Amino acid sequence: EEAIDAQALVDQNCTGCHGSEVYTRDERRVESLDALHGQVRMCEQNLELTWFDDQVDAVTTLLNREYYNFEP
After folding, report:
1. How many domains are contained in the chain?
2. Angle of CA points 21, 25, 53, to nearest 5°
3. Which of 29, 48, 54, 55 is deepest in the core (most CB within 10 A)?
């Protein structure tokens, strides 16, 4: 099984619409791990990326580890 490069997915898709400031701003919308997963899924669907669930999960995990630090 091939590993998912979540950073590449973020670099190729997410930061094309916004920079990392949305993850670090004081008034960020995401306040839980479930909400983060939902936001990643919403962006994926809005951009019609057709990611698999494991890709959404990998990006959620990366963003949580790098920016949010929500408890699993």
Report:
1. 1
2. 65
3. 55
